Amino acid sequence: MRDWQTIFRIEEQDDKYPLYHQISLSLKTLIQKGVLYPGEMLPSEEEMGGYYGVSRLTMRRAIDDLVRESWLSRKHGIGTFVASPNITPTISRTLSFTDKMRALGLYPSSRLVRQSIIQVPEDISTRLHLTSGTQVIEIIRVRLADNQPIMVESAYLSAELFSGLLTADFSNHSLYESLREKYQVTVAWIDQILEPGLVSEEEAPLLGVKAGSLGLISHVLAFAQDGVAIEYSRSITLAEKCRFMFHFRERAPQA
Prior knowledge:
Chorismate lyase, 2 domains, globular
């Protein structure tokens, strides 16, 4: 029988972040480390709330976030399970577009479409755990490789935390490099979802194709080393420019 009381605990509370967010980060870490395994049924929300020392409402909000991000899944009338996702996690040696292009021997650059402060859209505030009405910096760029447009990317970051990015030049400089240099914030990992999609009328002239052309949409949530989500981006890449290589290895079962 699992010792849930020992498993479910927050090592150190950080008053900067609400408890539900700290709990969701704790559960993610347990899943990433293999302490909680795919398909495993978790205790009830009330029981887990008791282990973490929070109300059922707080526990439910933490679980809701993880269900929405596909870390957990609910089966009606049965319970909550660690997800066995149909999205296979992959690990890249580098996380930034600029570094990836350089690694492929291509010259990366960007053409700025818009760089402004906006009120955070509701779906993005949820992903970044920002209060509704908070201001974010929106950076929309066409990403190029050897001067050929291959992607339109929209990135969103907290304006309160990263106000200096509003005037930064990203034409040939990585956003992640800027975070390291200006704020000493390193992107430690990302969660990425890929899905097919069509190039919109707004995106088509930026990519030099017809609206409705086939593309690959990417949703990326970037995390700092302390596990806090700091950037959300949505991009669309021309399907003809996409090529992937996956390498999988069976992990030895735990004794």
